[in-house]
């Protein structure tokens, strides 16, 4: 009787352990994304995170906003050996041309940097055809300027329903705060799976991401 009970509990805890596992744990290449919300980051402390390989850094938003910590973070990330990428928070109801200019004036990509990222999450008060048209303009001009195809950041729902069909050839970075990875048929490369991770050298919470692939494949995406 007692042996049966012990066996039952052993099976129960094994099933519970499997259920609690996060699919993100199966990916070896990890990264974070940061902005002024993380305040003044101690990048030398961040360097001690052994499994951290890349960082996306907020550079700009809309037509005239520049993240106050971007230049500091951009320089420091390179100094500690992280692959770095810059992102623009897109505001679809204001001038695309001025948003492009804002980003270009702030971001000087160098050899070894990740492609620029367009963060598409503000979709209020705009039709989907108009959103797709304006996103397309930003992507096209930025690709021409930097000679590398930009990455699209979006929620799983937005990408699946609208952006995937419009931009099938762009690398996608999916935001999905879930234990289960985005569907493989989306051919995503980056997955933002948490916005509540703690990292050495960073005050408070920070977003955590994984890359699907090897370190060599991550390097191959870079400029």
TrEMBL record:
Residues 1-24 form the signal peptide. The keyword Hydrolase applies. GO terms for molecular function: lysozyme activity. Pfam families: Glyco_hydro_25 (PF01183). One of its GO terms (biological process) is peptidoglycan catabolic process. InterPro entries: GH (IPR017853), Glyco_hydro_25 (IPR002053), Glyco_hydro_fam25_subgr (IPR018077). Keywords: Glycosidase, Hydrolase, Signal. Gene3D superfamilies: Glycosidases. Belongs to the glycosyl hydrolase 25 family. This is Glycoside hydrolase. It comes from Aureispira anguillae.
